[in-house]
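Holo model, GMT. Inputs:
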Amino acid sequence: MKIGITCYPTYGGSGVVATEMGKELAALGHEIHFISYSIPIKLNSTSELIHFHEVEMLNYPLFEHPPYALALATKMAEVATHQNLDLLHVHYAIPHSVSAYLAKQMLLPRRLPVITTLHGTDITLVGNDRSYLPITKFSIERSDGVTAVSVYLRDLTYREFEIRRPIEMIPNFVNCDVFRRSTNRELKTKYAPNGEKILVHVSNFRPVKRVTDVIEIFDRVRQKTTARLLMIGDGPERSSAEWLAKSKRLGCQVVFLGKQESIAEILSIADLMLLPSETESFGLVALEAMACEVPVVASNVGGLPEVIRDGQDGFLVKPHEVDTMALKAAALLADDRKHQAMGQSARQRALENFCSSKIIAQYEQYYEQVIRNGGFNNPDKH
Ligand code: GMT
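Output:
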């Protein structure tokens, strides 16, 4: 198939999923055309089947905000025509599914099936803002296919947006050959020179991730065991977290690494992941950790219980309950046998349920179904 993929080209979960999906599909022989404002950060592939089309925006003094959604729609229509795309798959509803809808209309009577994948904040935060809700609802209804990354997100979309059309649940995935435990001793010694336990947090440091809770939890854990905390990523809450770490005199015990290219290597030296988010539609980083045999202590919210089995692959605790999270984390780190069993169970869970080989096949089937059927009751179906 010839597939167009649009995503945010940044470190965010939806961009990572879209980019990895493109790479996996290309490895299966599909021709992939990424359409975005810059090359996806994780697109480190040399495959001849992967192409990138940059959306260029006209800057004119009248435009305080350049109309990206329109420039994107124009580029989508152009690429679909010149590359003879079979399908356009957009990740994150806003504004990508609206641009895809416009591109589709521009191309009529030629048919361009559009699939929208909902990732989370496009529904939970952005889409729920009343000003964005009607257009998000419209573009979901008019997509030929819609997928959501968890049952939680699918049902929330049905409920909050009063959507009557079917939404396919296809979970996120991880490449289990890339994300696997293979400890780099030198790296481990660098961050834990005296054999300290390594805790890790990975996020975009937005308020929803509750990064200061991560510091609070770690502060309690290190009172019971010698440990280090690696904070990976960057974002608006980073300075608050750094300030808190400093004021608790955590000094060199907490290291802020910023955005990292290869997190698999770092996860491979970690003993535990902390993910105390306010909400999380799926929690891709939790899955990546699990694939590296790292148990996760996370909030019992959103789609996280669909990924992490409480007591088996980690622990799920009510959000904000930093004392309980710290107690569970410290107890696990003190029990080597349990810790090892949980790490192995986490890896097994990733292998059996979320490996890219399994999930990409589900996407391929869904693509074929949408191309064949032309979308569910879509008034724009041609
Ligand atoms: O907030 C983020 O983590 C970024 C956001 C995104 O769209 O890039 O992540 C969302 O999509 C990820 C990939 O499907 C999910 O794993 C994250 O759980 C989800 N984030 C939230 O729901 C807060």
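The two ends are 19 Å apart (CA to CA). Residues 12-15, 17, 92, 119-121, 124, 149, 172, 204, 206, 208, 279-284 surround GMT (CB under 6 Å).
Archived with the compound record.
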